[in-house]
């Protein structure tokens, strides 16, 4: 499972986040800082845990901190709208991944979480953290900030925060987060399918949007089934199965296709 998770994380570090940052007016200096940290951070994934891997993970953690600081700067400048709440969440979420990667690469638990769980946390906060919130914000902007799109822009960050809280509070809180996040992501998918696709100027963009929206119906159902099983003890997919299905489909189908489509719709 480790090589698969590493590939998913690398795609988030080197493709999804850099492309996504260009869609929300992040300064060039911040984007360059991200690449400068993400490249060694990606290499660190393939080294044995220890000082060498930690040394390469440090620039990545610093880059996530710079991105979070930029989010704080944006927050001071204006009272955030629902769309901006989603964007700020996207910018802040990788900082959780940055801290998690440092401890995972050192081979030490963090707040009781062992390195394998920390690796999954790194992946989670590139996709459920950054990509999901980013796309929710972009959908809100593209659809004229209607009531449904504003709801999605708030529900996705709220669900992500609840899932994070569930790591510390317990499985039932994580299940509540999964329910809220799933509702938000299904709403994002519905709006993408019914509204945003109309804005596509060519078949490729429309197809990328369609794939990104359709994938959510299955991947978030898997997330719900896993969270429900963890909370209740009912049979549910294993972590390895979740990485191979939920993780791969969210990374390739939702995030990569979605960000690529939004790059083609950049004039919005």
Automatic annotation (TrEMBL):
The keyword Membrane applies. InterPro entries: YndJ-like. The chain crosses the membrane at residues 6-24, 53-73, 85-103, 115-139, 151-169, 175-194, 206-227, 239-262. Keywords: Membrane, Transmembrane, Transmembrane helix. This is YndJ-like protein. It comes from Sphaerisporangium krabiense.
């Amino acid at each position: 499972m480790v090589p698969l998770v590493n590939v998913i994380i690398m795609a988030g570090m080197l493709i999804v986040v850099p492309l996504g940052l260009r869609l929300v007016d992040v300064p060039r200096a911040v984007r360059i800082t991200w690449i400068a940290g993400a490249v060694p951070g990606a290499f660190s994934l393939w080294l044995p845990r220890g000082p060498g891997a930690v040394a390469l993970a440090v620039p990545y953690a610093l880059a996530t901190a710079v991105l979070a600081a930029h989010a704080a700067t944006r927050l001071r400048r204006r009272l955030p709208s629902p769309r901006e709440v989603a964007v700020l969440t996207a910018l802040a979420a990788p900082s959780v991944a940055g801290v998690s990667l440092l401890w995972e690469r050192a081979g030490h638990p963090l707040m009781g979480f062992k390195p394998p769980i920390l690796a999954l946390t790194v992946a989670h906060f590139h996709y459920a953290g950054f990509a999901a919130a980013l796309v929710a914000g972009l959908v809100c902007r593209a659809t004229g900030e209607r009531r449904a799109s504003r709801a999605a822009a708030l529900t996705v960050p709220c669900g992500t925060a609840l899932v994070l809280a569930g790591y510390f509070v317990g499985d039932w809180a994580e299940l509540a987060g999964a329910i809220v996040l799933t509702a938000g992501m299904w709403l994002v998918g519905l709006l993408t399918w019914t509204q945003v696709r109309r804005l596509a100027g060519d078949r490729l963009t429309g197809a990328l949007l369609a794939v990104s929206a359709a994938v959510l119906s299955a991947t978030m159902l898997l997330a719900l089934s896993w969270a429900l099983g963890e909370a209740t003890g009912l049979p549910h997919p294993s972590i390895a199965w979740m990485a191979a299905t939920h993780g791969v489909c969210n990374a390739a189908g939702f995030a990569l296709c979605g960000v690529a489509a939004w790059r083609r719709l950049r004039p919005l």
